[in-house]
Amino acid sequence: MTTTPATTGTTDIVPGPPTAAPRGRGLRRFLANRMAVVGLAILVLLVLFSVLGPLVYPTDQVHTDLANANLPPGAGHPLGTDAVGYDVLGRLMIAGRVSLVVGLAAGILATLVGTLWGAVAGYVGGWVDAAMMRVVDAGIAIPAIFLLLVVSAITRPSVPLLVVVIGLVSWLVPARLVRAEAVSLKTREYVLAVRAGGGTHGRAVLRHIVPNTVGTVVVNATFQVADAILLVAYLSYLGMGVQPPSTDWGAMLSSGISLVYSGAWWLILPAGLAIVAVVCAFNFIGDGLRDMLDVKGRRS
Amino acid sequence: MTTTTRGWARSPLLHYVLRRTGQALLVVLLVTVVVFLLLQALPGGPARGVLGQTATPEQIAAFNAANGFDDPLPQQYLAFLDRLLHGDLGTSYVMNMPVADAIGERLPKTLLLTVLSLVVAVAVALPLGVRQAARRNSAFDYSTTTLAVVLYSTPSFFLGLLLVIVFSQWLGVLPALAPQGQTVAEVLAEPKALVLPVLTGSLVAVATFSRYARSSTIDNLAEDYVRTARAKGTSERAVLRRHVVRNSLTPVIAMLGYQVPVVFGGALVVEQLFNYPGMGLLFWSSAQASDFPVLLGCVLVIAVATVAGSLLADLTQAAVDPRTRGGLR
Question: Rounded distance, CA B118 to CA B129, Å?
Fold first, then answer.
């Protein structure tokens, strides 16, 4: 695998042999961004909490325990129990698994689809490009949350379906970003050389266009994951996302709302703060990566 | 995003306006195709929805024949388009009224809520973004930009809930329920009840807008004209006020046009949280009741508004800044 310095699509960069220098400098630049390091630390902690937490702190999240419902934080239940007696701390861990997995998988799926779509549109150009980008425009015209609610009304989604659907409504922004880069990349000498040397269009797109957009793609993917986690939280909050017995942080918060007015803060505060923390973490990391890879622009 | 310079980039504004408007119409047409296909994808089709779960196959067949649902798909699509052009969005399964009427009743209230939120957000975010840029890398800049990321990362339902807990539960100064009036005038008669919904809607937008205003101002501060103005001895304050602000905030104002889907998405959650009887709440309750004609009618209205918003934004940009006429933003 070759590493090429990520370009921003401006024409003042002379295409040349890849240099090794930017890598070390980039890492230092990432570490110099204090918030990016904080974000990374928060993310690692939350992943450990969700993945290893239940091994250290096992709780029964299957059988309801109505005798011990709505207990405030105290001995035995550091964060209290919810309306059916589940331990809130333990539930926070297993809900975190769902939130993280759905967010990561949907964000990555959206990035893959969008990158390929944008690369092909920008590379082929002409009316194909125009048609493909009008599809993107039409997709952007229908806000994701509305489309997701329509789909949820047709069929209550399982977790894998949720990943696919969120991925398929979120690929539009990376498609636009990658297309813009592909348009400028396809006239570079090394891409022209592939074609002149008898290489196929597929080879030009997959081996030369896509790898050169990697900076933009990686930075955007980080923001995509953040947005996907938010989106699934919104859906679950609206009662149309992750369905019982499974749960995520959004669903946990949603089920605690009716009791919050009687003072049960532990039913919404931990779950809400977990969402804010993980989304912040991804956004901070994205900002750091952008500085490191020298990619311009945060979102489209 | 970079704008490419091609031959037609030098052609007059009118050419751009026509081309861009044509594109927008094409996108709206594509959206109607998507909505039409979604209607077809409904379990059991529209007949099941209208006649209910107990309808016999014979009743469904009769319904489909009577309503033209047996015709070939392209013909059905044209009929669907024809009805749309006549303002017919279908009939609600649940409310027994035309979808257009149901939306028409609630849309003004949603517009009121969103416009109020946007005005508050812009009034706070633009001065904030400019000040952040002017004092770039200061403690003020760091703390407010970090706060903006945190706000941006906070789901609006959580933010709204926290506001409710603080202002209506603890302090007891503001109601937790939005105005329940049926008309805009009735809603405006309860200004106190509007405060929390508007605040919730605007806080997240402040985070987004201030970011744009900040980076746009920073870009402009690096321009040659700023150096010239400074070299001529203009005070930093005057540079900012007289030169930079005007240039840097125009794209930010135009950008508001691209925010239409975000704004409607935000309204959906805020209306649900505060039980505000607008289009967002209508959409949510229709999703709960599987009232598909209403859902798809709302999607169409929002999509048209989104396309119109970004068209307006592009045209504003093109009118103000000829450099942007070439690219599709």
Answer: 15
Angle at Cα A81 formed by Cα A75 and Cα A82, nearest 5°?
170
A132 lies within 8 A of chain B by CB: no
* Amino acid (1-letter code) at residue B80: F
Which residues in chain B have their CB less than 8 angstroms from residue A134's CB?
Answer: 23, 26-27, 30
- Nearest CB neighbour to B153, from listed A9, A144, A276: A276
- The one-digit pLDDT tens for each residue of chain A (300 residues) are 333 444 333 334 444 444 444 556 667 777 777 888 888 999 999 999 988 888 888 777 777 777 777 777 777 777 777 777 788 788 888 888 889 999 999 999 999 999 999 888 888 888 888 888 888 888 888 888 888 888 887 777 788 888 998 888 889 888 988 888 888 887 777 777 877 777 777 777 777 777 777 888 888 888 889 989 998 898 888 888 887 778 889 888 888 887 777 777 788 888 889 999 999 999 988 888 887 776 654 443
Complex prediction ipTM = 0.80
Chain B hits for A9, CB-CB cut-off 8 Å, are: 2
Q: How far apart are the first and last CA of chain A?
A: 29
Dmax over CA atoms of chain B, in Å, equals: 86
Q: Check if A45 contacts B (Cβ < 8 Å).
A: no
Q: How many Cβ atoms sit within 10 Å of the Cβ of residue A291?
A: 16
Between CA A15 and CA B99 the distance in angstroms is 57
- Exposure b/e, B222-247, CB count within 10 A at least 16 = b: eeeebeebeeeebeeeebbeebbbeb
Write the DSSP assignment of A48-76 as a string of letters.
Answer: HHHHTHHHHS----SS--GGGTTPPSBTT
Q: For residue A15, what is the DSSP state?
A: P
Helix or strand run (H / E) with residue B9: none
In A, minimum Cα distance to B143 occurs at A35
Amino acid at position B75, single letter = Q
Whether residue A245 is preceded by a cis peptide bond, meaning omega within 30 degrees of 0, is yes
